[in-house]
Protein: Spermidine/putrescine import ATP-binding protein PotA
Organism: Tropicibacter naphthalenivorans
Amino acid sequence: MGSGQVNERDTMTDISKDLELVGVTKRYGKTVAVDAINHHFRPASYTCLLGPSGCGKSSTLRMIAGHESVSDGSILLGGRDISHLPPAKRGTAMMFQSYALFPHLTVLDNVAFSQKMKGVDAATRRKAAAEMLELVDLSKLADRLPDQLSGGQQQRVALARALITRPQVLLLDEPLSALDPFLRIRMRTELRKLQQELGISFLHVTHGQDEALALADEIVVMNNAVIEQAGPARDVFNAPKTEFVARFMGGHNVIALPEGHFAIRTDAVGLADQGQLEAAVTAVEYQGTHVSVTTRAIGDQEITAVIKDAEFFENPKAPGDTVGLTWAQDSLHRLIN
Ligand code: ADP
Ligand code: MG
């Protein structure tokens, strides 16, 4: 066994390192794009950085990758401060969009390119690239040029090109946004599977809450340059802490009651003759398995109840009807603001 292989095995047993952000800040002139964020990413996990456009997701990712300098704070990987290391020395890799592939190089040579730059000999780098292509299921297309591939295949080449550096953390910035809806769902399944096979951390930036829910072990919700809430995907969805998170994750109502502001899942609200709140039905939308009933309650609050179809049709409602809105007390989640 060559020394190259021994090395590779050593890194393979030692890949699940913690990534930690400590007071990380990014300023562009007077704009504060990322404002002193702290987060400990769990090792070997799939994390989605979720938030609306302009909230600082890409800046955060690029600072972790080393493609953007840190204005303040530190980035630690496995306890080591990597904040000022060049991208290739960090143990991270960024998956670039597929249009960054070299058009004149074959798929195999595109994947082997970074190793060529490092001076790895042709046989070794071609073998490594072939292994990566097998991982992303593209072995048969190794000799093609990028423009002879579909969008999804090009994306898998981009993925192989990032993974050949054997990163501890793979960084992906909106990797599915250029794909059509069908491919997007297929590709996200593949990303998830790959992360589990490799046992490394994936950090995936998205503005789509459905994508984050489908993929992530952990969701970090950003808004206005700060982290609003972070935690396991189900916790963030079920128990949003702020009105912003409740509305951004969707599937929730925000209700103002004398005791404060609360989030409640739309499917936790029921309809009855008498309930906790009286409301007028404003719209009824049939959704197949469920019916979405929108109402207006006291204080001009819009509250939606999503009712199972069979239950709704036992006692159907129409716009203009007065209903009582009901819920179990423990389905209310108090909001901080
Ligand atoms: P996101 O990826 O969440 O959409 P970004 O990190 O790209 O957000 O941007 C966050 C903020 O920083 C935005 O206000 C954006 O306009 C600003 N910004 C991003 N990159 C630059 C840059 N290179 N120069 C100046 N401002 C920037
Ligand atoms: Mg972005």
About this structure: Residues 28, 31, 33, 51, 53-59 surround adenosine-5'-diphosphate (ligand 1) (CB under 6 Å). The chain is about 30% helix and 35% strand.
